[in-house]
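ARCHIVE CARD
CATEGORY: sequence design from structure
SOURCE FIELD: tokenized fold
FIELD CONTENT:
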């Protein structure tokens, strides 16, 4: 096997250094955000020529926040950094945050510089420009250890590994091992990683690596085989240059079946070496955090990833339990926390588990971010949860910050499509989709819903993924006046498990039974076990309006707005919502929506959205 250099190890958790500690890193000479300039050496905050007085601990708190713009700073980390040798209550930190907000507001700052994440911590929202003692200012919302962008970007795909001899002991490695390798490499800004789902789909249709490379539009392909021999597993892999079919490097790794962690570590390091990738310190930390502490934890993780491919209640329940087993072995393995969070959300959406499952999902992602703040996997998977829980604006700001760090990760921009739409920023949602598609022409985003909100029903149908069609194309046909076509298609479609209120209400409505449709929607909205994200609530409000329950529809739209989905374009232009405009409180709700959109647009611009999606 090709000798590999060792990547420096780092702790699983990134500690927050106290403001007066350098920890081997050079402090910026100043930090500029909005009209303010923070100067650590002089311990002053300026607004133009004006010096704004700050007590020492308030200054230290602000410095900690501006060092990590866009990042969630947990309360316990901030308190440990500010009072390392003392025990203090949370109220002490809260008072410093309150004072900072007061000082900034009185000096003319826009609202929302410091975001409170309830029960967890705080996030500094505006982009920060750092100026060093020598050299030009660096205008970026990234961490201080970030280096210059990669000079080249390599498009990469890892194909499913062929399990030789059909050995069932190694069957779980076919998809889970290459997927885990791809997830590790996704943290490198010099790579654009194609999804494992695309790799599996293309390999099933035509296993020839060169054909797959052309279809996936990639530069490098990783292909491999797995063979069990007694208690040993032998993994052979080749890194192939896509256009020529030339083998750039090959690897053979033989280890015990219960020590698979060595295989991933070897392959990831080998790929980094062969491609001569220049890693930043942050990227080294992300790679280190992708390696669990024990081989047993890694085996549970790979088995969970394999089982989760089924995406049924049974498979996701089993995957959830396997991720828990993994975390019992290594409670500091961030990727497992992220995937456990996704399992909890999936089970909650199926309605098979109570609302506590969503709380567990959120907690799991917070744990993942605490252990590895820049883990791309966690940022991609967390977006639906954050948006559906009423925090789409925070999701948007977070993804924009990550987009600066990972400008070649299409999954981050796919997440922005949803986050921007939930905030009513439809043009920005389309731009995020376009950016994602430039990076990966086969990536699937939720842009069909964006087109629906714009009233472009033909394009909504066009961009609705064929393999996952459920409701939106039916709603688009009906909204476009093609009710007969919608009814025929609805009659042909088979829906998995149970009753779906959006489907059943539409079915009744298309048959002319509007009373039954209204009753179905009422039951869904009143049910304590029915999981409805705020966008789904908006769709049900449309159904109520179409069926003649205008007052209830208006009340439901207000509820969707409160829950975190608002869209003035749809509210004013959707043909099914036209009966609402004469209602007395329509204008009030519209004004509230417009105000929320204005706040979201300001946050988008402050986070550098126009620059990133230009």
């Amino acid at each position: 096997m090709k000798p590999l250099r060792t990547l420096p190890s780092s702790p699983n958790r990134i500690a927050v250094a106290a403001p007066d500690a350098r920890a081997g890193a050079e402090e910026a000479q100043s930090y500029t955000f909005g009209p303010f300039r923070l100067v650590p050496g002089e311990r002053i905050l300026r607004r133009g020529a004006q010096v704004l007085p700050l007590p020492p601990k308030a200054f230290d708190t602000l410095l900690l926040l501006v060092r990590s713009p866009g990042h969630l700073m947990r309360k316990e980390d901030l308190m440990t950094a500010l009072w390392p040798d003392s025990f203090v209550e949370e109220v002490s930190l809260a008072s410093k945050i309150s004072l900072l907000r007061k000082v900034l507001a009185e000096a003319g700052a826009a609202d929302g510089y410091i975001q409170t994440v309830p029960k967890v911590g705080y996030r500094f929202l505006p982009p920060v420009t750092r100026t060093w003692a020598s050299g030009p200012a660096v205008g970026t919302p990234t961490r201080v250890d970030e280096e210059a962008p990669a000079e080249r970007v390599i498009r990469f795909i890892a194909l499913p590994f062929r399990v030789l001899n059909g050995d069932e002991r190694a069957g779980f490695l076919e998809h889970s091992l290459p997927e885990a390798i791809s997830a590790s490499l996704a943290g490198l800004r010099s790579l654009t990683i194609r999804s494992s789902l695309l790799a599996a789909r293309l390999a099933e249709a035509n296993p020839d690596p060169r054909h797959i490379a052309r279809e996936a539009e990639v530069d490098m392909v990783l292909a491999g085989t797995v063979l069990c021999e007694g208690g040993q597993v032998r993994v052979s892999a080749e890194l192939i240059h896509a256009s020529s079919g030339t083998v750039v490097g090959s690897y053979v790794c033989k280890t015990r079946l219960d020590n698979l962690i060595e295989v991933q570590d070897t392959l990831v390091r080998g790929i980094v070496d062969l491609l001569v990738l220049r890693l930043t310190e942050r990227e080294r930390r992300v790679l280190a955090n992708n390696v669990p502490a024990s081989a047993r934890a890694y085996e549970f993780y790979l088995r969970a990833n394999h089982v989760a491919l089924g995406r049924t209640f049974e498979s996701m329940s089993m995957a959830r339990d396997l991720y828990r087993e993994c975390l019992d072995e290594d409670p500091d393995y961030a990727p497992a926390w992220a995937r456990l969070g996704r399992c909890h959300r999936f089970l909650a959406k199926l309605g098979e588990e109570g609302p506590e499952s969503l709380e567990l999902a959120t907690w799991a992602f917070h744990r993942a971010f605490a252990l590895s703040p820049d883990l791309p996997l966690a940022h991609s998977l967390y977006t639906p949860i954050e948006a559906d829980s009423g925090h789409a604006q925070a999701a948007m700001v977070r993804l924009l910050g990550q987009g600066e760090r990972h400008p070649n990760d299409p999954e981050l921009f796919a997440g922005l499509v949803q986050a921007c739409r939930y905030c009513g920023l439809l043009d920005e949602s389309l731009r995020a989709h376009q950016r994602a598609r430039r990076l990966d022409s086969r990536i699937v985003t939720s842009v069909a819903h964006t087109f629906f909100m714009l009233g472009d029903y033909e394009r909504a149908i066009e961009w609705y993924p064929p393999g996952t069609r459920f409701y939106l194309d039916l709603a688009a046909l009906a909204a476009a006046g093609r009710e007969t076509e919608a009814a025929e298609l609805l009659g042909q479609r088979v829906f998995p498990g149970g009753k779906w209120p959006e489907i059943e209400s539409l079915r009744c409505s298309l048959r002319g039974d509007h009373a039954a449709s209204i009753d179905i929607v009422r039951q869904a909205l009143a049910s304590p076990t029915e999981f409805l994200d705020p966008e789904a609530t908006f769709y049900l409000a449309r159904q109520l309006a179409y069926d003649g329950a205008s007052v209830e529809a208006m009340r439901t739209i207000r509820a969707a707005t409160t829950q975190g989905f608002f869209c003035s374009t749809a509210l004013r232009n959707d043909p099914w919502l036209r009966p609402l405009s004469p209602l007395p409180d329509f204008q009030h709700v519209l004004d509230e929506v417009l105000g929320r959109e204005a706040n979201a647009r300001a946050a988008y611009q402050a986070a550098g959205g126009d620059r990133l999606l230009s």
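CARD ANNOTATION: The first strand starts at residue 30 and ends at 33. Residues 30 and 387 are 34 Å apart (CA to CA).
SHELF: design records, drawer C
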